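Limitations
The structure tokens in this dataset are predictions for the assembled complex, not deposited experimental models. Users should treat interface geometry with appropriate caution, especially where small molecules or nucleic acid strands are included. An illustrative entry is reproduced here so readers can see what is and is not provided.
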Amino acid sequence: DAKTTQPNSMESNEEEPVHLPCNHSTISGTDYIHWYRQLPSQGPEYVIHGLTSNVNNRMASLAIAEDRKSSTLILHRATLRDAAVYYCILLSGNTPLVFGKGTRLSVIA
Amino acid sequence: DAGITQSPRHKVTETGTPVTLRCHQTENHRYMYWYRQDPGHGLRLIHYSYGVKDTDKGEVSDGYSVSRSKTEDFLLTLESATSSQTSVYFCASGDRGFNTEAFFGQGTRLTVV
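Predicted assembly:
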């Protein structure tokens, strides 16, 4: 199974951009890169996903390396509400949604 | 928000008793999942379903069974609850496995005493 590697934790100041990295060196051509986050005491929520091209939505941007072996989730202006655990997940075909350890993002006021 | 609800939200049960948790979705999603979350372990997949009566095991399926007789309902059963199954349980549903988003319930906190 394709795996991802993320830093255990990161810290950001409020209202500054945050770049959350994810390495997936064994990614296959059919793997989509998904990001989810889990706020304290809540279930996970979808953030964004992409295949090859960079993606933007109202929550974040996803920058995918040209060789697809890494990607970066970008929060353009971190707020206190963005403090959460962020998960980078590869999905293809009928593979189930399996979570790794993720990156715990702390936002400092 | 997608309509996905878990019941009960909290439950305390005794060791050795059977327990069934229910996940109900109103989005006609094909895929449904059950996870457990424990401190220091993150979210771990218990079982998942890719259609009515089609289920498969996840990472930590021992001691759990599931059933899906209707698209909208996915039941998780602990046949004989143990203290090690004290956890927060999340269910999720989604339309397809890889190119759309999954939606999660608010969780069920289960305590086995």
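Some entries come with short summary sentences. For this one: The two ends of chain B are 35 Å apart (CA to CA).
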